[in-house]
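Each record in this resource describes a single protein on a pair of labelled lines. An example record follows, reproduced without changes.
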Amino acid sequence: MILLLAGIGDFFTAIMTPLHAAISFVLMYAYRGWSALTGSGAGLTWVLAIMTLTVVVRSILIPLFVRQINSARNMQLIQPKMKELQDKYGADRQKLGIETQKLMKEEGVNPMASCFPMLLQMPVFFALYQVLYAAATDVPRGYFFEQNPDLVHSLFNTQFFGAQLAGHFWMADWGGFGATQIFALVLVIMMTALFFITQKQLMGKNMPPESRTGTMAQQQKMMLYLFPAMYLIMGMFIPIGVLVYWVTNNLWTLGQQWLLMRNNPTPGTPAYVEWEERMIRKGRDPEAIAAERRAKRSRKVTEAKGSRTVGTSRTPGTPGAGSGTGSRTPGGGGRTDAPRLLGGSETPDSGEDSGAAGTGGTSGVSRQQIQRQQPSRQSRSNRAEPKKKK
């Protein structure tokens, strides 16, 4: 058991050591860069350096954040179908599991995709916290801080508005209550408020009505108030330097989420209605934009499934997912209007507006199933040529 714990410790050390070095590198050069403007050793210099470090880290993690948000949104969009499966196969757990997996495969949804980016971010944020927390206790952590311990001493002793960046709100002797505690309390309140507003914004504007009812909705509402309470308690014991990072991080998250909701909101939500109205005011067609996004998403899902599915191929002449041309199904002799079938398909992005494709109904046939059933123009023409010769 001891050997196992030692092995786990060595594994995490191997992961965190390069992250500590990278973070200390960015923080050191951010401090030196701001020193040219605000002066070496100034509290404002260290505050700006910590904020710069946060912005750099969050900028690098933007692709992971977007992937996490899109995956979570795709899971929300298939909730109505999953509820139908639960109502239909609720008593048969095995059948329900099989049909659920089949649905997710058809829609190109992976429940782990929304968790995996978050798991990748955790070591980075943990390393960032460790470097700043160690510096707040006058301990260099990270290669570049270890090589420049004077920078750590500077951060440990510096003050901003009379508050020590290494200090925190909670203190053993409350007789020394002063600027450090006041500034720390302000940062804790800001950190908690920004987190609450971010979650409230997400739940209020970027969640479909189906996601606001049931057990999951109750859990989300409970988390909306539970996590801010935890922030308030933890913030009392966190150094001000770390609180500066946390406030900047929450402010970045709020702005990033606002931009994502404004430009690419979840279909069927208040944010989506506002986006449609803005597009109309700008003279653009929201239905055309939604159809283009659905077609793009469908191509990605089809390409991903095509590499795993035998016999699923498309020739250059095959009509696109949102094509207005009719297609002949293999089992029928008549022509089928493709937009009418596709308008109600519920691929992860097709929920943007069921009317965007020109239909009022919802088809239970997924876009990928339709594409596999449609023969290409080239194959139809090849079959037609012998008939003409006869």
